[in-house]
Design brief:
The chain is of the alpha/beta class. 45% of the residues lie in helices and 21% in strands. It has three domains: 6-136, 3-Layer(aba) Sandwich (Rossmann fold); 146-289, Alpha-Beta Plaits, CATH 3.30.70.270; 315-554, TIM Barrel (Alpha-Beta Barrel), CATH 3.20.20.450. The strands form four sheets. An eight-stranded mixed barrel has the order 13-14-16-17-18-19-20-21, surrounded by five helices. The radius of gyration is 33 Å and the shape is elongated.
């Protein structure tokens, strides 16, 4: 028996006919035989999923060929195996096609070359279909992958050029928290359950669905208006936590009545832009792409195109905000934070709130970070030479930087080239950057600490990390996000969260840094609570290096 041969099941009650087919096919195929319908069904149910073809006579004892064909097509484990019907009854051909037959071989049998040609064609089509099937579906969710989804979108447009369609992007709210809390196995099972629900809903909106990435799905559907109902149907009875019955919360970005002249990926990029507008919203569940978002999209495209020019022409300018230690008789300058600004040659000053998230999303932030590190190190060197003052500077280290295998070496070289110590360059890592691949982050921060760099955790309390994870991270300071400062000095005057963070920092033997401090009252309260260092408009806004010099000359 040749294990490399494809297998064919011949279901034929007449011995002579079986032998004829066997003699024709034996050189090319491994043959399995059944002389009646029941025997054939037993063979199929015993796990014959390795069959490439079934040759089926219609007039069989015990179980007819039509009955067997009907059973095969109703069984999802078998209905992907092609069936060629052996018949002399032309009138049954249409019925066989309706039951799922792939082709016919007439009786009495034609020339062997014709039989071989028909069988080879059907087997090749079957194998091509299996290849497509194995690559067109996402392994986890069994929904279309992007490549095939886009192809089927194009096909749908050709068949229905005048039908109004919506491009929809769907995301599961706080999915990264769910993954962190319950683990990868649970979050994967949640994606599978949600995918099945989406697939079930597609006929209702004449749509198709793709698992794009992580918790993001895209849908191409005939235009409809009741988005709230669709959102409810998507998440109905799907719970994140069965015990407390915490419902799954879903958000949706919609590009309505798509312009079919646009590339398909542009249509869904617009839907994703609309979805991203909901990132910080706890009220709205869907957002529709509009002209304002279109203008924003075009503006961002221009910024991306001009990024390299801006780097080469040094349009990015580093400002410095001083940080003061407030524990003691008088505030004392201890360091500064480097904050990048874009002085565009035509557009003027562009807010970092616009270009930083854009560069993070598009993978340009690493190049910008490197630029800022070099600028800050060069400026520290100049300050030390001119004012003989040693003022460390905090620089941002993005999540993508932490996965760069050359990060430690790159930072060491920058420090060495400018005659600085590694402790002069303080590395700020946002807490949210530490929520996935924790072991990798911990290993990298340990390597940075061993090289002499100091680690500051930025935006602490907003990143949803666990305390056990923070306890494992090597750190030298916890930075209290400005949102806690603002909340503490509202009408409720509640500073409990700040005190909790300071206590956590004390437990970890790390100082606290409060940002966004604007008043004398805030400084006094923070000092009383035990906060070590503050920065904010009370002392100074971020300023160019020339203006920062005033803080250096004021220090005795």
């Amino acid at each position: 028996m040749n294990k490399n041969k494809r297998k064919i099941l011949i279901v034929e009650d007449e011995f002579v006919n079986r032998e004829i087919l066997k003699n024709i096919l034996l050189d090319d195929f491994e043959i399995i035989e059944a002389e009646d319908g029941e025997t054939a069904l037993e063979l199929l149910n015993s796990g014959r999923d390795d069959l490439s073809l079934i040759l089926l006579d219609l007039f069989l004892p015990k179980l007819s060929g039509l009955e067997l064909l009907n059973i095969i097509q109703a069984n999802t484990a078998l209905n992907n195996i092609p069936v060629i019907v052996l018949t002399s009854d032309k009138e049954l051909e249409v019925q066989c096609l309706q039951y799922g037959a792939s082709d016919f071989i007439s009786k009495p049998y034609p020339d062997s070359s014709i039989i071989k040609a028909r069988i080879n064609r059907v087997v090749e089509l079957f194998e091509d279909r299996q290849t497509i099937k194995s690559t067109e579906r996402d392994a986890l969710t069994r929904l279309y992958t992007r490549e095939y989804f886009y192809k089927y979108v194009a096909d749908k447009d050709k068949l229905n050029p005048n039908v109004e369609m919506d491009a929809i992007a769907i995301g599961i709210r706080s999915f990264h928290i769910i993954k962190e809390r319950f683990g990868t196995s649970f979050s994967d099972s949640l994606l599978v359950r949600f995918s099945k629900r989406l697939k079930k809903l597609m006929p209702n909106i004449s749509g198709m669905v793709c698992h794009l990435e992580a918790d993001t799905f895209i849908v191409y559907a005939q235009h409809f208006e009741d988005y709230e109902k669709f959102l409810e149907e998507m998440s109905a009875d799907i719970y994140v936590d069965k015990e407390s019955k915490t419902p799954l919360k879903v958000q949706m970005g919609i590009y309505q009545n798509v312009d079919k002249n646009l590339d398909i990926d542009v249509r869904f990029e617009r839907a994703k832009i609309a979805l991203n507008k909901l990132r910080d919203s706890v009220v709205k569940n869907y957002f529709i792409f509009d002209d304002k978002l279109k203008e924003k999209e075009l503006f961002e495209e221009e910024l991306l195109e001009e990024f390299n020019t801006a780097i080469n022409e040094r349009q990015f300018v580093v400002f410095y905000q001083p940080k003061f230690n407030i524990q003691g008789e008088a505030p004392r300058l201890v360091s500064a934070e480097a904050l990048v600004r874009w002085k565009h040659s035509q557009k003027g000053l562009i807010s970092p709130g616009i270009f930083i998230p854009l560069f993070e999303e598009k993978g340009l932030i690493q190049q910008l970070d490197l630029y800022v590190w070099k600028e800050a190190a060069s400026q520290m060197k100049k300050w030390q030479e001119k004012y003989h003052k040693h003022v460390p500077v905090s620089v941002n280290v993005s999540r993508i930087d932490l996965f760069d295998p050359t990060l430690v070496e790159t930072l060491q070289n920058i420090v060495k080239e400018n005659g600085l110590n590694t402790s002069d360059l303080l590395l700020e890592i946002t807490e949210s950057a530490c929520t996935d691949n924790v072991d990798v982050i911990i290993d990298k921060t340990n390597a940075l600490r061993e090289a002499g760099f100091k680690i500051e955790i930025d935006d602490f309390g907003t990143g949803y990390s666990s305390l056990s994870m923070i306890n494992k991270l090597p750190l030298d300071a916890l930075k209290i996000d400005m949102i806690f400062i603002r909340n503490a000095f509202t009408s409720e005057n509640d500073s409990k969260m700040i005190k909790i963070i300071i206590d956590i920092a004390s437990y970890l033997k790390a100082p606290t840094i409060a940002e966004g401090v604007e008043t004398k009252e805030q400084v006094a309260v923070l000092k009383e609570l035990g906060c070590d260092i503050v920065q904010g408009y009370y002392f100074s806004k971020p300023v160019p290096n020339e203006e920062f010099a005033a803080f250096l000359t004021a220090e005795k």
